[in-house]
Amino acid sequence: MTSGVRSRLATGAQAFVSNARNPNLRRAQLSFLGAWTAEWAFTVALGIVAYNSGGPLALGLVGLLRMLPSALLAPVLSPLADRGRRERVLIVVSVARGVATALAAVTIAFSGPVALVYVLAVISTIAATLFRPAHSALLPTLCRTGHELASANVVRGMLDSIATLVGPLLAAILLAVADVWVVFGVAAAASFWAALLLLRLRYDAPARGRSARPALLKETVEGLRAVRGDGGLMLILGLAAAQSLTRGALTVFSVVVAIELLGLGEPGAGALMAAVGVGAVVGSLFASLLVGSGQLGAWFAIGVALWGLPIALIGVFPAQAAALVLLAFVGIGNALIDLAGFTLIGRLAPDAVMARVFGVLESLVTISIGVGSVLASIVIAWVGLPWALISIGLVCPVLAAASWWRLRRLDRSVGALDADVSLLQRVPMLAPLPLPAIEQLARGLDDSELAAGETVFRQGDVGDLYYVIRSGTAEVLGDGRRVASLGPGDGFGEIALLRRSRRTASVVATERLNLTSLTADRFATAVLGYAPATARAEQDVVDHLARFSPAGDHAHTDEESHDR
């Protein structure tokens, strides 16, 4: 048991160390910290402005009106992040957020119209809505394995948790000693910092054609189809929408509970949201221990449940200490969702449409937050604050319980995908591929089995498949003589695909052979789409041809370009 605990702690520590050592991940993660610190501070400040202007109903309406344009535009604009380098989208939206938030600060400072602040809030929120899809689609490109992606999402979850703590806490402190416009100003500075961090990001992006691009609307539809065609994605996005509805309600509850139920005043709204941040930091540390658990679907369900149950219990135990402790559990749930939800989506969505899938998620999240804020205001007016907390708080736990077994099946399917990815990464020319590319290959594998003595292909055949051995052995025959032996994890058949030639040798099973294969188009697109993989493949071909055909007669040994 002790060794198991130590192993988990080592795994959790490695999750943070791997991100700290990778300059690209480090810059991307710190940029996220700046962006989401700005978002939480901005949300608290805007809530205070709306409440002072028109009470709880105005607070809810502003939340909805702020979110609706973002919900409509997120899936339409997110294809931009699939067209080129995703960090450029992040830089643009961070600058846009910073400018809009700074103008809101100036408007409040000079007693300008509140309506203008609301308009600027909409602009800032539209930009914020585009940040997470682009960032979520960027992370898998910076990773090599599912474990590394889960680690990156743990670290981002931790930074999200810190932002959830620091943003509201900073707002609470500033509201206690200064005016609300100062909070807007600090949020603007955090957005500009997020943009600056990304200017030095360097990574190997896949080639994306610039000609004959479809219209944005058509690309948006492709993202929607990708979600609709995958039951796992549909389930995760549906539960994320339920969690976001509760989150929207919490933006109203935090202000009304602080002022009307607990008597904490305006700074109390920031304190309650800071309690969520404290729990989120603790939850992120716990989530780091779950990176290799293989049970992300189960933990996702638990995280969704924790987003609602504590809120319901505040309605039962309306005391200051109880509210702070219970909201900390909401933060723990948020950390579990960050790890499990974003990792699962990153594993299930194809890289070509990944930003669009995250755009659909962001649209659902945004509109659900807006609906949740209005719903909370209406239910408070209808049945009172305690019953509003209870009724809305029970939505997530009920849905999480109903989805439990489907999420466990999803865990098993991701486990099978991991096994295929691990097999492909044993092939040296495929090992440099980023995680989305190699997962795309894994999804296209086709298994076959041959008895001892059967021929996989013959010298002179047309090359149409690339093979990797799962189990068993085979030998390579050039002009009838044995030139190599192949075993589990070896790949072969690439020269005919990369050089567009016929098979230069025969491959025959020497014992029962379990193979998996890739089509020529799928293989070539992946290998030739990333510079490191292309360079490794070309070098391997040259090395093997030189090794087995020193006299230049390639006919005997081309097939020995298998990767071992």
TrEMBL record:
Keywords: Cell membrane, Membrane, Transmembrane, Transmembrane helix
SUPFAM superfamilies per the UniProt record, alphabetical: cAMP-binding domain-like, MFS general substrate transporter
The Major facilitator superfamily (MFS) profile domain, residue ranges: 1-411
Transmembrane stretches, start-end: 30-51, 57-77, 89-110, 116-134, 154-175, 181-201, 233-259, 271-291, 298-317, 323-345, 357-381, 387-405
Membrane topology summary: Multi-pass membrane protein
Location of the Cyclic nucleotide-binding domain: 429-523
Gene3D superfamilies per record: Jelly Rolls, MFS general substrate transporter like domains
Subcellular location: Cell membrane
Protein name per Swiss-Prot or TrEMBL: MFS transporter
Organism: Microbacterium invictum
